[in-house]
Amino acid sequence: xxxxxxxxxxxxxxxxxxxxxxxxxxxxxxxxxxxxxxxxxxxxxxxxxxxxxxxxxxxxxxxxxxxxxxxxxxxxxxxxxxxxxxxxxxxxxxxxxxxxxxxxxxxxxxxxxxxxxxxxxxxxxxxxxxxxxxxxxxxxxxxxxxxxxxxxxxxxxxxxxxxxxxxxxxxxxxxxxxxxxxxxxxxxxxxxxxxxxxxxxxxxxxxxxxxxxxxxxxxxxxxxxxxxxxxxxxxxxxxxxxxxx
Amino acid sequence: xxxxxxxxxxxxxxxxxxxxxxxxxxxxxxxxxxxxxxxxxxxxxxxxxxxxxxxxxxxxxxxxxxxxxxxxxxxxxxxxxxxx
Lengths: 245, 84
Fold this sequence. Notes:
The complex is a heterodimer of chains A (245) and B (84).
Chain A: H1 2-7, E1 20-26, E2 29-34, H2 35-59, H3 67-87, H4 91-110, H5 123-144, H6 147-154, H7 166-201, H8 210-241
Antiparallel strand pairs in A: 1-2
Helix pairs in contact in A: 2-4, 3-4, 4-8, 5-7, 5-8, 7-8
Chain B: H1 5-20, H2 25-44, H3 49-63, H4 65-80
């Protein structure tokens, strides 16, 4: 009914929602397997197959690299360069994790090109990624900083014996994963919705020109948001690991 | 013509969604300012173009967040229908 209010007559073929495929009972709750799960499994399968092939290739690496080996080396070097440029001396600990989520988010965002519903257009996926960042920040903070320093940072504009500012700082800590995940989610969702509206409402004249919009919404926006997510994750973790000497 | 309470709530949700996406004005202005300053910076120092571009895109993507919150509120009002 809302669709009818929104879009007038041609609203039947507009579809950007998550669909449940089948459900099962788990401890009294109904759990749905949705299109997001299927798409995320497809993305994971592609990445795993690529990783296995790349691993075989690198084990038999040649002195003069051929095309595929060149591509692998380029990817690893570029990602290492990005992580090294932001994290400096902490880079070796995190280059594997950051590269993994970079490739995963990038593949998820551009999977809209291949007819899938991007898994990152589901808030469950991005919230999980945001929570991993949140726990990485705080585990590293407790590992590398003294409790006294953390307490002083938490009461930051006022002196440590006057914790009036503590609740506000705690809220700003909790806001980090929420804003990280919502930013990624809303960007990818807006692209998905726009493409669904164009294909649904203008289906008669949507012949070739939506390709340009795909380049913007899927490739450009997806790549920028991937970069931003990884950049902010690295900046926050690096900030948490800073020790004052 | 009978207007039930649910119809009224749906109509008001649509108006609310329209009002919520006015939040897009702010990020538009902010991103324009960032792009303008980046263009000026490239004009002064063309050698640092790649650094300036990546910094500008990062800042713009972060500034976009508030507009996206407005979009999310509009989408929730239209499709999840929390008030009905």
